[in-house]
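Appendix B, example 12.
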Amino acid sequence: MSPQVSAYIGLGSNLDDPRAQIERAVSAIGELPQSRVGRMSRLYASVPWGVADQPEFVNAAVELQTSLAAHALLDSLLGIEQQVGRRRDGLRWGPRRIDLDILVYGDRCVDEPGLQVPHPHLHERAFALEPLFQIAPDLVIPGCGPVAALLAAVDRSGCRPLERHGATTE
């Protein structure tokens, strides 16, 4: 069995009761083989990124201890998205029931077809950095720098906390 890696997953939803969609996704992530959900951020509301004419998003991040390889983890996350009806129909940054992204996978940088880790837009997105900072304030994102410094450099005005959420499932 492969060694455990701390992976950080970004979650977002703006359709069909986004809070419930995120809760279901976290539950499904917790059922992945060779994996255990650790800390989870509170929920954040954020203005849409890319396509402005859509409902605001609810975002969160979870820490996942996993032995799954990065590609296997990505395949599992895409499977969860499909289970809840997400169809990748070519519209980028449009409305969706759930969006699951590998933000960080241990200390690794991956740049392969279909998988880039750290997430290539992470350093630009307050809606991903805010929840990530909440659960891993000392995290250094490979190739990018400390999450705190990245968060300090972005416009946070379109991202606000919604509520406290249970911090762990440990």
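The beta strands are 5-13, 35-40, 43-46, 57-66, 99-105, 110-112, 115-117, 140-141, 145-146, 159-163. Helices lie at 18-30, 70-83, 126-135, 147-152.
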